[in-house]
Amino acid sequence: MNPFVELNLALILFLPWFAILGTLYWMFPRQPRTAHRKLFDGVALLLAFTAFLLSLYWSHANADPVYGRMWQQILATAVGYGVFLAVLTVAFFVRRRWLRRTR
For the whole model, what pTM was predicted? Predict the structure, then answer.
């Protein structure tokens, strides 16, 4: 397998799912849709994606090669997906609290 594709395989496979989750995060709740809200949502999505990439490359580099090359992909995918969801979950609850305070 091409080394570039092997390193970014989890990204390639999860990109459509991240697009769906990101769109749902961006769209709901529909109101209020202020400039501050758009900025917060954009930063949260960028932070989640950046954290995913950092954890993906870190876990791929630190996976124990004794268990085979497939283990690197499994660990990178699991850790990266968990980090992406964790950042979006924290952003969701922070945004929810912030929107309740501004009403």
Answer: 0.90
